[in-house]
Design goal:
Blueprint: H1 5-12, H2 14-23, H3 35-40, H4 45-57, H5 61-73, H6 79-95, H7 106-115, H8 120-126, H9 129-146, H10 152-168, H11 181-196, H12 201-211, H13 214-227, H14 233-242, H15 246-254, H16 262-271, H17 274-283, H18 287-299, H19 303-309, H20 315-332, H21 338-345, H22 362-371, H23 374-397, H24 409-427, H25 434-447, H26 458-468, H27 471-474
InterPro entries: Ankyrin_rpt-contain_sf, SKIP35
Length: 477
């Protein structure tokens, strides 16, 4: 395969290549000349196309390097644009090696133009490690030839251009891409740019974590480790958790040694990312981390996450912090008290509704007084008493052709109390609000089945009511 570039050109490009070769024959020595000479020697479109064919015909590093030298010597001077385009195109081609592309996705439509560079299995088979090494060596040669014409800003922008497609195509990567030669090429490209002065590694680690580009995150972690670069793995883990990127978060914890769980755990709790929260809890969280994440979940009304966290938080810690947790939950809830209601229904504490603490927010105080105070309990009793009086009036003096007193007792109970029963079931939790509990207590008292003191809890009260309801209404299945 070791042919010089002249032989390669004459074999593959015909007469046009020979003419161009003659035109460039004496240009090797012109690389170091004044740049103004290069500005005067712009090639025509036909000659540029011939150069492209020459590149395709070059089979070894020596031939490609000679061509690059000739191009620079004959007028190429826009090194900034060249490095940007090379980095972007190389990254796009590398990303498109993945076979898992969703054609309905807009990103894939953009990627289809790059797929023309990847002609099926034949192309992928030729995309081997030795070929990638030649490409990287060629790129390194170009950087050496560019020399002082490129600044640290240029290398940073080229690094950004290389990382952008890998972040954009994150959801389309095939798992096998991580072990393919494409990964070697991508990592080699990024390393060359970092060695030359690119300084945006941490920025792209955060972006890749946010969008779930796990393979780019893995590459950046390895590069940062080898080059002793300062990166914020814990903040990146927070981004991945906030946006629910499970695989990326796993990578940052396992390979990036992310140690700060509190921030990511609270972000996941706020967003309602239950799988991420479960992952951190299984990994091991401190008691205070569990309490703070519970507060974060209830503040954002993420009841599913709160229901998962509540059994894992130690009871003695919750007992000590219960009032403070409810205060914070109410302050940060944005007007909705669903999180507070969940905590109260879950037997979170027993006397917060009667608290006279002046630091409790007015909205929360009004909510507690309406649903969880002694006054709310008495109101519930009074409402059911009025309901019973109305029902008796209908039974005795109603003029409907269907007389309620002639119906079976279970149906009369259903007419009177089935809506209350369903409302109590819908409320859920281990406690009812004081208003609902007052209504249920009066209903059970009027049914006269058992002493009220023996039926003080939600489940016991509901069992009494269920006993008097028709079975087909209690268990529809």
């Amino acid at each position: 395969m070791a042919k010089n570039s002249g032989e390669c050109c004459s074999c593959s490009c015909g007469c046009g290549a020979k003419k161009l070769k003659c035109k460039l024959a004496n240009s090797d020595s012109e690389v170091g000349r004044n740049d103004n000479l290069g500005l005067e020697k712009k090639l025509s479109r036909e000659n540029r196309l011939e150069l492209g064919r020459l590149f395709q015909g070059a089979q070894d590093l020596h031939g490609i390097t000679r061509l690059i030298r000739k191009i620079i010597g004959n007028g190429a001077y826009d090194f900034t644009r060249a490095i940007l385009r090379t980095s972007l195109l190389a990254s796009c081609v590398s990303a498109c090696q993945s076979q898992k592309m969703i054609h309905a996705d807009t990103v894939t439509v953009m990627a289809q133009s790059f797929h023309f560079l990847c002609q099926g299995n034949e192309y992928r088979a030729s995309y081997t490690v030795p070929k990638i090494q030649i490409q990287l060596s060629t790129f390194k040669t170009f950087l050496d030839l560019a020399g002082k014409h490129l600044t640290g800003k240029d290398f940073t922008e080229a690094f950004d251009a290389a990382c952008f497609p890998l972040t954009l195509f994150a959801s389309s990567f095939d798992p096998r891409w991580a072990s393919s030669p494409s990964t070697i090429g991508t990592q080699g490209l990024l390393v060359l740019l970092i060695d030359s002065g690119a300084d945006s590694v941490n920025q792209w680690l955060l972006q890749a974590s946010r969008f779930g580009s796990t393979e780019l995150v893995r590459n950046l972690l390895q590069i940062a480790l080898r080059n002793s670069l300062d990166i914020d793995v814990d903040l990146a883990s927070g981004f991945a958790s906030h946006y629910g990127k499970m695989d990326t978060m796993e990578c940052l914890v396992e390979e990036g040694n992310a140690m700060a769980f509190l921030g990511p755990l609270m972000r996941a709790a706020e967003r309602g990312c239950t799988p991420v929260v479960q992952r951190f809890v299984r990994k091991g969280c401190r008691d205070m981390e569990l309490c703070l994440s519970l507060t974060a979940a209830t503040s954002c009304n993420q009841v599913e996450v709160a229901a998962y966290l509540l059994p894992h938080a130690p009871k003695h810690v919750l007992a000590a912090l219960s009032i403070e947790i409810l205060k914070v939950t109410a302050e940060r809830s944005g007007g909705s008290l669903d999180g507070v209601s969940f905590l109260l229904r879950s037997d979170f504490l027993d006397n917060i509704a009667r608290s006279n603490d002046k630091s409790v927010a007015p909205e929360m105080r009004a909510f507690l007084q309406e649903h969880w105070s002694e006054a709310a309990f008495l109101l519930g009793l009074r409402q059911v008493q009025e309901h019973h009086v109305n029902l008796v009036r209908i039974i005795k003096w109603g003029e409907s052709p269907i007389c309620l007193r002639d119906l079976p007792g279970a149906l009369r109970v259903a007419i009177a109390y089935l809506p209350l029963y369903r409302k109590c079931l819908k409320a859920g939790g281990s406690l009812l609000s004081q208003r609902l509990r007052g209504q249920l207590v009066d209903a059970v008292r009027r049914l006269g089945c058992m002493e009220l003191k023996k039926a003080s809890h939600r489940r016991q009260l509901l069992v009494v009511l269920e006993h008097h309801l028709p079975s087909f209404l209690v268990n529809p299945s």
